[in-house]
Amino acid sequence: MPRTEPLELRLEPSSLLAGTVVDSSGEPLAGARVNMMRMRSVEAGGMAMQVAMAEDTTSDAEGRFAFEEQEPGKVSLTGVASGYQEARLADLVIPKGEDLDDVKIELADGAILQGRVVTPDGRPAIGASVGKVSSGRGFGPRMGGDVPVDGDGYYRLEGLAPGALSIEAEHPDYPRVAKDVELRAGINAINLAFEGGQEVSGRVVDTSGKPIPAATVRAVQTGQFWGSAETMTEPDGGFTLPGVQDGDYTLQASAEGYASARDRKISVAGQPVVGLEVVLDAGTRIVGHVTGLDPKDYSRVTIRAMGADFDFHGTGVDHEGGFRLDNVSPGDHELVGTLSDSARRATSKVRVDAGVPEVSAELVFDSGVTLSGHVRQADAPIAGATISASSEEQNRTGWSQTDANGFFALDGLVPGSYEVTIREFRTGLAHTETVEVSTSREIEIEIPSAAVRGTVVDSSDRQPLAGVQLLLTPVGETPRGFMPLHSATTDSTGRFELPAIADGSWELSAEKQGYAATQQTIQVQHERSEEDVRVSLDPTEGISLEVRMPSGSAPDEVRLAVLSGETAIVSGSYSTGENGSVRVSTVPPGSWDVLMSAPGTSTTTFRVNAPGPKTPVQLAPATQLTVEIPELVESGQLATLKLTGSDGRLYRALGWSGQPQSSWQVRGGRQVVTLPPGSWTVQVESRDGQAWSGSSVTSPGSDATLVLGDG
Q1: May I ask the CATH architecture of the domain 284-364?
Q2: What residues contact 3, with CB distance under 8 A and at least 6 apart?
């Protein structure tokens, strides 16, 4: 129906962000590239997500730059010019209704690295890219910063700091190559040459032997979620994966109109692997209907089936609520129906047997309850904030955004205890609290107004430190590895601010390359801000490692955590340098336990001294143990799984957050754990106190399955 009341649009005044790029002597720099980045929340697939938005400009003849018509909030600026080091100013705040026009970006003298990249036979490595080896906080694929080679194989890297550096070159057809260099100010030259690796080749055919063109073929190591060798089949079904390093792999193949094949094991050991044949069949159709919804909501429904080894299928429903999923592989699949802009969902277990053309399923959507209310700070509504309610026990998450009055509504929740989180990415505002939801209810959320502000300095000369990463976590809680609630980066004067902090005891962590990571406890009381927190960082040499895979080759990347007790004080993903070298420059002096893994390996534990000589690390092979508890499949209860080795010690792995993990949550009665080879005692306990135990032996090259409580 047409609106009867007037539509009101509120326009907010914009701001100017401007400043000057100068060299170390204060002289303006013309032609410097300046990048501005800010975080926003967007909706995608019925979920709220954080995305980075960027703008670029170039400084004029007087070194001036400007970004006009900017909204208030936090931004980061990066400046770079030929012959100078890249400089970054993080967490700059553009005030509401005011200009920020006196920003100064100072660029220090830098180094340029250039050279040529060639193939194993000396030809230009067209298609290669070259970049700095990345290291530090965070887990996930490395993003950006690389430069492509030109048509003659030449590259040029600018914005580098003089001193020790590792660089890497990557190409789709060859193993990654890395080299350690010592840069001086000005132009430096380093050439890189790829080595051959091994060729893995074969054909993909259907059940009648007919070739399948345009099939995707991957060679994936255990624990590898990105960066695997990948190609597509030719018209004759043939495929070639060049440059595959030694190791154990699972060969995966998929094609439109066929079920995926994900169980072919291969081993590469110093020679090509040829003559492989992968057979794809049409798989099975899953057909069914959804119930419990108003037909007008059918267009908002998404159906997904998830099997073992991340075998996903997805579809919508028709106008009668029917759905069909084609080409599903044999095995157990969890069928999940979701409704966009709602937490309502439906789940079902489906067993697909080989050779069965079709199975049926029914998905019944629950009605759930609604959590609604208002979000305010100092009696003012918080508009445009992302709000989520998540319950691990109920396996339920709802998302929404506050309107102009701070109002939100999350429907489709099931009764339980929820962690409600409010985030306003534009300003950095974040808050979380626990809410009990038994029936539909309305709540009022008041964001704390207290803040933690302070300065970080170098302990040796008391000079302020820019670019220090700070993280504030409630005492006794495990830090969040992804999207931490309260984080900040110091500005050029070493200052930082962490807003919206509730009363309580907090642990403040600080980290910067070349300095020992540190933690200190602070108190926030009576909603009063902590205005002058002093953080002092000690320069440190950190630790140096030389890492080897089970095959003897160097890994391209490792994940590690340096532990103090059961807490990681330093963690992250580190690309390796020449000969598998890794330097972690934020480890404080002392003796530490370290957990480390790489794609194709299990987690290895070793001890290291900081400072100390380069420590050799031999990573252990990866095996997989699948634990199944049929009783939990029927009941749907959650359970906790723990593993003990033959030495009587609890097995610890690296969790997604970078913290040590010694237990695994079992959902749906099945859990797969990556382990070193050995004998294992398995213990599983459900939330209602039921317990199961058993033992198994894992060995390289073959997966093991342990069924508990089955007769």
Answers
A1: Sandwich (2.60)
A2: none
| Contact criterion met (CB below 8 Å) for 290 and 298 | yes
Q: What is the spatial distance between Cα 106 and Cα 59, in angstroms, rounded to a whole number?
A: 13
Task: Number of helices (H) and strands (E) in the chain: give both, helices first.
Answer: 1, 61
Let me know: does 707 contact 669? Beta carbons within 8 Å: no
**Cβ 279 vs Cβ 269: under 8 Å:** no
In this prediction, residue 144 has a pLDDT band, given cuts at 50, 70 and 90, of: very low
| Dihedral angle sign, alpha carbons of residues 422, 423, 428, 434 | positive
Pair 510, 467: CB distance under 8 Å: no
Q: Which two tokens stand for residue 29?
A: 């720099």
By C-alpha distance, which of 87, 85, 39, 89 is closest to 494?
A: 89
pLDDT at 145: 66
CA distances 102 to 64, 179, 467, 490, Å, are: 10, 41, 19, 18
| C-alpha closest to that of 398 among 448, 349, 347, 437 | 437
For 598-611, what is the mean pLDDT? 93
**CA-closest candidate to residue 447, choices 374, 519, 363, 395:** 374
- pTM for this one? 0.83
Residue scoring higher pLDDT (4 or 615): 615
Mean pLDDT of 218-232: 80
The secondary element (H helix, E strand) that includes residue 651 is none
SS3 state of residue 328: strand
Q: How many CA atoms does the CB half-sphere of 694 hold within 13 Å?
A: 16
- Closest to 612 in 3D by CA, of 516, 564, 542: 542
CATH number 2.60.40.1120 given to 15-107: yes
Enclosing H/E stretch for 493: none
Q: What is the DSSP string of 160-196?
A: EPSEEEEEEEEETTEEEEEEEEEE-SEEEE--EE---
The architecture CATH gives domain 111-193:
Sandwich (2.60)
Instruction: Give the chain's end-to-end CA distance (angstroms, integer).
Output: 62
Backbone Cα Rg of the chain: 28
Coil, strand, or helix at residue 580? helix
The residue ranges of every structural domain in the chain are 15-107, 111-193, 198-280, 284-364, 369-446, 452-537, 543-618, 623-707
Question: Would you state the pLDDT for residue 4?
Answer: 62
Return the CATH superfamily for domain 369-446. Immunoglobulins (2.60.40.10)
Q: Which fold has domain 543-618?
A: Immunoglobulin-like (2.60.40)
Most confident among 209-213, 249-253, 656-660 (mean pLDDT): 209-213
Q: What whole-number distance in Å separates Cα of residue 501 and Cα of residue 705?
A: 47
CATH of segment(s) 623-707: 2.60.40
Pairwise CA distance, residues 148 & 151, whole Å: 10
